[in-house]
Amino acid sequence: MVNINRVYTGGGDNGESSLVDGSRRKKSDQRFDVVGLCDEVNSWLGMVLMEIERLPDHDDGGERTGVIRVQTVIGEAVSRVQNELFDIGAEMACPPETLPDYMVLISQEQTDVLVSEMDAWLSSLSELTSFILPSGSAPVAAAHMARTVVRRLERSVVTLKEREGDESVRPVVCVYLNRLSDWLFVMGRWISSTLNEEETLWVPLGKRTAEKGVAHRVAQMRSNDDDLSSL
Predict the structure, then answer these.
(1) Taking Cα atoms as reference points, which of 48, 68, 46 lies closest to residue 57?
(2) Structural domains of the chain sorted by starting position, each given as residue range(s) with its CATH number in brackets
(3) How far apart are CA 6 and CA 93, in angstroms?
(4) Nearest-angstrom CA–CA distance, 73 and 122
């Protein structure tokens, strides 16, 4: 049971903080970087939830069933993953050998659920012919942000293993995070498809036409403004 009756303690004023086992480390410690990134990913998932709730569920043609599907499926899935990320953050806030007995840790089961959801989403998606640029509606863009932060979290976990040894992180945590970034990518694609949105594909430089930039457009807008002001 967690009892929080005061957020501020002053214990970290000197640049140190406590791990779950009570030991003190500098806030620059790699383990705190991992924990902080878990929190950052979780915050971006909160943005995904906010944005799907803000989607208009009606338009001039009536009810938008796609929005209801996104809110139902993504709302449930993301809320579950937020809890799992908190589980991982709590676990990573302590060396494995000093984890308290009462802490329940994620297992392969949670990773398997991510895979099953990806397979379900992919069954209704077209095959990709190019990479996707991070863009789209608000929930899709937020999912891309969460995905990139998960990749940064993965790199931070690898750095922790290099500094403290392979036994410093359970292998299942690394597997889960690797699947999670894929999960977010596929989830974003499924949201776009369900909302009938177009994905923005990357066009390699060799296939793009010569680009003049937008300076000429800005100059034309300014010229138009001058013409209007002279009327």
Answers:
(1) 68
(2) 16-203 (1.20.1200.10)
(3) 20
(4) 14
**What's the mean pLDDT in 82-96?**
92
**pLDDT value at position 231?**
65
Give the pLDDT confidence of 155-168 residue by residue, as tens digits: 999 999 999 999 99
Phi, psi (deg, nearest 5) at residue 117: -70, -40
Assess contact for 190 and 118: CB atoms under 8 A: no
DSSP state of 201: B
Contacts of 86 (CB under 8 A, 6+ apart): 38, 42
The total of other beta-carbon atoms located within 10 Å of residue 174's CB is 14
Provide the token pair at 151.
């990749």
Half-sphere exposure of 11 (CA within 13 A, CB side): 12
Helix, strand or coil, per DSSP, at residue 10:
coil
User: Which is nearest to 137 in space by CA: 67, 221, 75, 225?
Assistant: 67
Give 91's contacts (C-beta < 8 A, 6+ positions apart): 99, 103, 105, 106, 170, 173
Structure-token match 């329940």, residue found = 104
Which element (helix H / strand E) includes 58? strand 58-59
- Placement of tokens 């790699």 in the chain: 30
Confidence of residue 88 (pLDDT cuts 50, 70, 90): very high
Summarised one tens digit per residue, pLDDT across range 94-126 is: 888 888 888 899 999 999 999 999 999 999 998
First to last CA, the chain: 72
Report pLDDT for 194.
94
pTM: 0.85
